[in-house]
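S1.2 Input.
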Amino acid sequence: MTATIKIEHEKKEKLDKFLASLLLREGIKITLQEAIGLMIDYALENEDDIIQRLKELPPLEQDPAWKALENPKHWGIKDSSKRIDEFLYGR
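S1.3 Output.
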């Protein structure tokens, strides 16, 4: 079974460079899927280190997107889809 995940473009580029350097320096060729799988296994084996790094991240409550969800803008209509269409498509 597989799942699709989204990853920031910058992190994807770093992974690609890592895999390329792995091939050049060590002669090891693995797919992105294999690399991410190994990284997940490593993270789970080193749970305490990962938890420490997670604790160092800023709280979710400081994320602007989270703040927007917590305090939605009221546009005076029950369904915003019409306003969204007007904004996006000019209709």
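S1.4 Remarks. The first helix runs from residue 9 to 26.
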